[in-house]
Amino acid sequence: MLPYYYVALIVKTTRIIAITNQKGGEGKTTTAINLAFGLAKRDKRTLLVDMDPQANTTGLFANPDNLEKTMYNVFSQSTPIQEAIIETDEKNLWVAPSKITLAEVESMGQNVDAPYILRDALHALKDFDYIIIDCPPSLSIFTINALVAATHVVVPAQAEKFSIDGMTGLQTTINSIKRRINPDLEVAGALVTQIKAKTVLTKTILPVVSQFFRVFDSTVSAGVAIGESHLARKSIFDYAPDSKQSKEYSDFLEELLRELEA
Ligand SMILES: Nc1ncnc2c1ncn2[C@@H]1O[C@H](COP(=O)(O)OP(=O)(O)OP(=O)(O)O)[C@@H](O)[C@H]1O
Ligand SMILES: [Mg+2]
In angstroms, what CA-CA distances link 87 with 45, 137, 243? Predict the structure, then answer.
């Protein structure tokens, strides 16, 4: 009798996670950076894409002014994203950097191809387990590109200042993109960040945010270690491994992985 051969079809799926909230200062960049470092430290090959002309994420790894090729070139000159990607000192972590010139291509919103540029660019990349996209504080063409390219969305929401209007606008945009362009897009959840008092969370934030998005059980409290880690150009795991925020971002990452890899 012929032996049975089991053919294992290994289809590699890259999870693409957009970190989005059109309000400023909600913790997008902090979450994108620490999520990316956390994944890399768990042996996931990770690309961190900076879609914000402010280039805060990029600044952690390089001086944006010294970079010859960035997401600006990918958007304005169809430069392959591989030419812009830079290595980092962290094993398993690469960055697709941005710089202020990216703002110049914002007006290309009228171009019919405009929403698809990032999706097409990322399609050429086969080697990553995770791609994390840091978005700007607006529902600009860059955020649209991120939502069109993404498989999942994480919405950081600052505990003390979250805005119902902001949540409504984001939810409407996500739903339109799901309906028209990217039906597989899933909101992984909202991550409440910068919490100063737990009572604010349970009494005022959770009831409101959960009307819009699933809210992660994990939350991130406010603490000076976060600002210090940015100044030190390190992840919270490297800068202050014993801090509360390091534990909280690690818990968030585990919760997200349980959800995505279930
Ligand atoms: N958990 C935290 N505790 C204390 N400070 C924090 C925390 N998370 C973020 N911050 C600080 O809040 C500010 C805004 O955070 P961050 O840059 O991550 O937000 P953002 O949503 O990316 O902002 P923008 O919309 O401008 O891109 C930063 O100065 C950051 O250091
Ligand atoms: Mg930011």
Answer: 12, 26, 27
